[in-house]
Specification:
The chain has 487 residues and is an alpha/beta fold. Helix content is 38%, strand content 18%. Strands 12-13-11-10-15-16 form a six-stranded parallel beta sheet, with helices on both faces. Helix 1 (3-14) packs antiparallel against helix 4 and helix 3 (60-76) packs across helix 7. The protein binds 2-aminohexanedioic acid.
Length: 487
C-alpha cells in the first residue's frame, strides 16, 4: 500500500479528518500523506491560562488518573500509532513501536509520581518554628517537539506537566503534524473517560516557526520545553529569558563512544550499528564519534565498514530494514555537504530519501566533526591513552550522551568520574542512544542543560515555595537579630 493510502486509513481509524494548509509528506516516497489546520497561538495560550486556574487545585493523584487513562489509550493504539510514526518520520516499525512504548512508560512513571511530589522539611534555627518546602504547579507548559521523536517527546513532557498540575500546549514539528493529530484523538478519548477536566488543558497548535515564536513570546506560557537543534535553542532561550519565563532545553548532541583495548568487540559492534545507523542517524543521542584505541582500530574499523555496507537501507515498513529514509531532501543535502563523494544514495523506493550510513576516518577533531549533522555519519578517531580519549570526547561544544566499552573497572570508573565524561548521559558497555525513561534525560553545554523524563526532572515543571511557620508565642528573628520595641 502507498504511504498516502495507509496514512488515510490510519487517520480514519483515529477519527482524524485531513484538511488545511499544512501538508505532511512521507519520507518513504516523498508524497503528501495528509493535511492539518494551522492553529491560533494566542487563543491556545489564553485557554491554557484559564485551564490552569482549575487544574492547579486538583489533587495530584487525581491528576494522575488522567495520565493513567491516557496510558491505556496508548496501549490500545500502540500498533496504528507506531505505524503512523513510521509513515510520517520514516523510522523503522520496531523503532516506531519503541517510541510509543516510551510514551506508555512515561505515563506509568507519571502516575506513580503523582503520589510522590515530595517536598522537604527543614530544621529551623528558631525555637517553635517549622520550615518546609512545597512544590506547586507552575502554569501552562509549551512543548516544542522535533520530527525525529514526533510523539514520545511530547509524552515525556505532557505526562509530567499534567501530574504537576499544568496545562500543556503542543507545537509539533511541521514535518510531523499527523502523528500529533492522532495523539490528540487519544487525548480526547482519555479526557472524555476522565470527565470534568477543564477545556484547554491539552492543546495542539500546528504551524511553522511563526506559530512557535508567538507561543514562545507569550507571557502566559510559564515553561517552554524545547527539543531540537542548538540553533533552535539559541533562538528560544533568550526570548524566554527576556520575559523571565522558564526554559527546559534538550538540544543537539555530538555523542561519542570510546572503545578500549579490553572491550568486548562483539557487543561494541552491535551497539555501534544501532546507535550510529539506527533512526538513520537522526536521534539527538546518535553515535557520531567513535574514539578507538589504536591497538584495535585496524580490527574494528574494517568490520564496521562491512556492517555499514551490508545493513539493509530501505522501506522502513519492511521487517528486515534497519535503516529507513532521512526526513527530506534537505537532510540528504546536509549529509552530502559534509561527506562529499562518500554519500551513497540508495534507490529503495522512488521519491524517498534513502542514504547508506557512512564511516569517515577523521585525522583530527575539527570542522564538521564538531557539528551535529542529522544524518548517519560516523567519524572514527584513534587514541593512545584514556586521558587523551576522554579529552577528545569532551572537546566538542555539545554534551548530551557518551559511552565507553571496556571490561576494565578502572577505565569505566574514570570515565564516569568528575574528571571523566562531561555529558548528561554516560554509559558503560552500551551505546549512547536508546535511554530508558526512568533516568533524567538531557545534557550540558550546547545541549542546553535541561533534564526531561525520569528521576527528579518533574521539578522543572513546578515552582518551589519555602514556608516558615511559627507555632510559638515569641517572635525570634533569624540570625539572632535583636529588633525589640522599647518597653
Ligand atoms: C531525541 O532524539 O530527541 O535515548 C530523543 C534515546 C531516546 C530518546 C531520543 N530514548 O535515544
Amino acid at each position: 500500500m502507498s504511504p498516502a493510502d495507509e496514512a488515510a486509513s490510519i487517520l480514519k481509524h483515529f477519527g482524524v479528518q485531513s484538511g488545511g494548509d499544512l501538508a505532511s509528506f512521507s519520507p518513504i516516497d516523498g508524497n503528501e500523506i495528509g493535511r492539518v489546520r494551522i492553529g491560533d497561538p494566542a487563543r491556545a495560550a489564553e485557554e491554557a491560562a484559564q485551564a490552569f486556574l482549575q487544574w492547579r487545585s486538583v489533587p495530584a493523584p487525581r491528576l494522575g488518573e488522567l495520565v493513567r487513562l491516557l496510558g491505556e489509550e496508548l496501549r490500545a493504539a500502540k500498533e496504528p500509532l507506531a505505524r503512523l510514526v513510521t509513515l510520517e518520520s520514516g523510522k523503522i516499525v520496531q523503532e516506531g513501536l519503541g517510541e510509543v512504548q516510551e510514551m506508555i512508560d512515561i505515563c506509568d512513571f507519571a502516575v506513580g509520581l503523582s503520589r510522590q511530589l515530595y517536598g522537604l522539611t527543614i530544621a529551623s534555627e528558631r525555637p517553635n518554628h517549622r520550615m518546609m518546602e512545597q512544590w506547586h504547579p507552575l502554569g501552562p507548559v509549551l512543548v516544542i517537539s522535533a520530527f525525529n521523536f514526533p510523539v514520545a517527546v511530547w509524552a515525556w513532557n505532557a505526562a509530567l506537566a499534567l501530574v504537576c498540575g499544568n496545562p500543556v500546549v503542543w507545537k509539533p514539528s511541521e514535518k510531523t503534524p499527523l502523528t500529533a493529530e492522532a495523539v490528540m484523538a487519544l487525548v480526547r478519548r482519555a479526557l472524555s473517560k476522565y470527565g470534568g477536566a477543564p477545556d484547554g488543558l491539552l492543546q495542539l497548535v500546528q504551524g511553522g516557526r511563526d506559530v512557535g515564536e508567538a507561543l514562545v513570546d507569550d507571557a502566559r506560557i510559564a515553561l517552554v520545553s524545547g527539543t531540537g537543534s542548538t540553533a533552535m535553542g539559541r533562538a528560544v532561550g533568550p526570548r524566554v529569558a527576556q520575559r523571565f519565563g522558564r526554559v527546559l532545553l534538550e538540544l543537539g548532541g555530538n555523542n561519542a563512544m570510546i572503545v578500549c583495548p579490553s572491550a568486548d568487540l562483539t557487543l561494541a559492534e552491535r551497539a555501534i550499528l544501532f546507535s550510529a545507523a539506527g533512526t538513520a542517524g537522526q536521534r539527538c543521542t546518535t553515535l557520531r564519534r567513535l574514539i578507538v584505541h589504536e591497538s584495535i582500530a585496524d580490527q574494528l574499523v574494517p568490520r564496521l565498514k562491512q556492517l555499514f555496507a551490508n545493513v539493509k537501507v530501505g522501506d522502513p515498513r519492511e521487517p528486515d530494514t534497519l535503516v529507513g529514509p532521512l526526513i527530506d531532501e534537505g537532510a540528504c543535502d546536509a549529509m552530502g555537504r559534509v561527506v562529499g563523494d562518500l554519500i551513497e544514495r540508495v534507490d529503495a523506493v522512488p521519491g524517498g530519501f534513502y542514504v547508506r550510513p557512512a564511516i569517515v576516518e577523521a585525522k583530527a577533531q575539527e570542522g564538521t566533526v564538531l557539528k551535529e549533522t542529522f544524518a548517519p555519519i560516523l567519524y572514527v578517531l584513534r587514541y593512545r591513552t584514556l586521558d587523551e580519549a576522554i579529552a577528545l570526547q569532551n572537546e566538542v561544544p555539545q554534551g548530551l550522551s557518551s559511552s565507553i566499552f571496556t571490561t576494565d573497572l578502572r577505565e569505566a570508573e574514570q570515565f564516569l568520574s568528575a574528571a571523566g565524561s562531561d555529558c548528561g548521559i554516560a554509559n558503560v558497555n552500551i551505546g549512547p542512544s536508546g535511554a530508558e525513561i526512568g533516568g533524567a534525560f538531557g545534557g550540558e553545554k550546547e545541549t542546553g542543560g535541561g533534564r526531561e523524563s525520569g528521576s527528579d526532572a518533574w521539578r522543572a515543571y513546578m515552582r518551589r515555595q519555602t514556608n516558615t511557620i511559627n507555632f510559638g508565642t515569641d517572635l525570634p528573628l533569624a540570625q539572632g537579630i535583636r529588633f525589640d520595641v522599647a518597653p
